[in-house]
Specification:
Elements lengths: L3 H7 L12 E2 L2 H10 L7 E5 L5 H9 L2 E5 L6 H7 L6 E4 L8 H8 L2 E6 L5 H11 L3 E9 H7 L10 H9 L1 E8 L4 E2 L6 E7 L10 H13 L5 H9 L3 H10 L13 H13 L7
Parallel strand pairs: 2-3, 2-5, 3-4, 5-6
Antiparallel strand pairs: 1-8, 6-9, 7-9
Helix pairs in contact: 2-3, 6-8, 8-12, 9-10, 9-12, 10-11
Bound molecules: S-adenosylmethionine (SAM).
Length: 281
């Protein structure tokens, strides 16, 4: 295959910043991402943002089937060249935000997400899988380095937040590699990292996902306030009731929400639910 940059030039492709078009070209890095994801001949992969098809191609060499979304139709002539002999790839020219998750999952069945995500929508895309997916095994995604730190953060750190707690409920999360900005064309202003979120390992169940979401939102609402004060403000309960709830969840008085681990937040959400302070749906 011709050099990717030559193909882009020959197709007179113009990079669109608003769609986060920073492409990868290094074959070793592309193979490493596929390997981090654990893709093999049994894996169905969903890629979001095919771009010029460099990662799509690397995935196609290992996977059973690759479904790749791409918002930018002007990449069609590029992709028809770069993916010419990739018979197990289906490119879908659509905004992934408009994709119907349950219809998509019916088609894909058991699948993994592997992508170099467009940075302007990284968190909403990841959160869609965390909150809505039923058949996804996990995500291996390139994201901005500081976003990667937030996804995998430990409780009590500045990076720990509602997104971390949401991801932890579904599985484990780790950074598999750091990728400097000069690996992308064009070069972005930030460094990146590959994050692996594994829905088949770790994670925990809660009595109600909605209750867990509301509890997490409350815990991180005002970082300078104690959890007790956040509970009083968010759920409009008297102080004594807030103290009872904390006691029942085994949480010490005076703590801040951001110091609690995801399983402790889960325990708190179950107690709030059992006491009718948050509703199941
Ligand atoms: N996978 C390629 C690579 O690694 O070189 C391209 C990655 S680039 C960071 C992100 C790609 O996502 C761009 O090609 C962009 O056009 C596409 N994109 C941006 N927003 C999208 C959306 N909402 N739905 C589908 N694709 C999108």
């Amino acid at each position: 295959m011709d050099d990717l940059r030559d193909i882009l030039r020959q197709c007179e492709f113009n990079f669109k910043k608003q769609w986060g078009q920073n492409f990868l070209t290094d074959p070793n890095l592309l193979r490493a991402i596929v390997s981090d994801a654990g893709v093999d001949e049994k894996t169905t992969v969903l890629e979001i943002g095919a771009g010029a098809g460099a990662l799509t191609r690397a995935l196609s060499e290992r996977a059973r089937k690759v479904f790749a979304y791409e918002i930018d139709r002007s990449l069609e002539p590029v992709l028809s060249r770069t993916l010419k002999d990739c018979n197990n790839v289906e490119v879908i020219f659509r905004d992934f935000a408009k994709a119907d998750m349950s219809a998509l999952e019916t088609e894909l069945n058991d699948y993994a997400v592997v992508a170099n995500l467009p940075y302007y929508v990284t968190t909403p895309i990841v959160m869609r899988f965390v909150e809505e997916s039923k058949h996804c095994r996990g995500l291996t995604v390139m994201v901005q380095e500081e976003v990667a730190e937030r996804f995998c953060a430990r409780e009590g750190t500045a990076e720990y937040g509602a997104v971390t707690a949401a991801i932890a409920r579904r599985g484990t999360c780790s950074i598999t590699r750091r990728v400097p900005r000069n690996m992308f064309t064009p070069r972005p202003n930030v460094d990146s990292a590959v994050v692996k979120i594994d829905f088949t390992a770790g994670g925990f169940t809660v009595k109600s996902e909605k209750a867990y979401r509301e509890t997490v939102r409350c815990a991180f609402l005002s970082r300078r306030k104690t959890l007790e004060n956040n509970l009083i403000g968010v759920f409009r309960i008297p102080r004594e009731r807030a103290k009872d709830v904390l006691r029942a969840a085994g949480i010490a008085e005076g703590v801040r929400g951001e110091t609690l681990s995801p399983p402790t937040l889960a325990k708190l959400s179950d107690v709030l639910l059992e006491n009718g302070i948050v509703q199941e749906r």
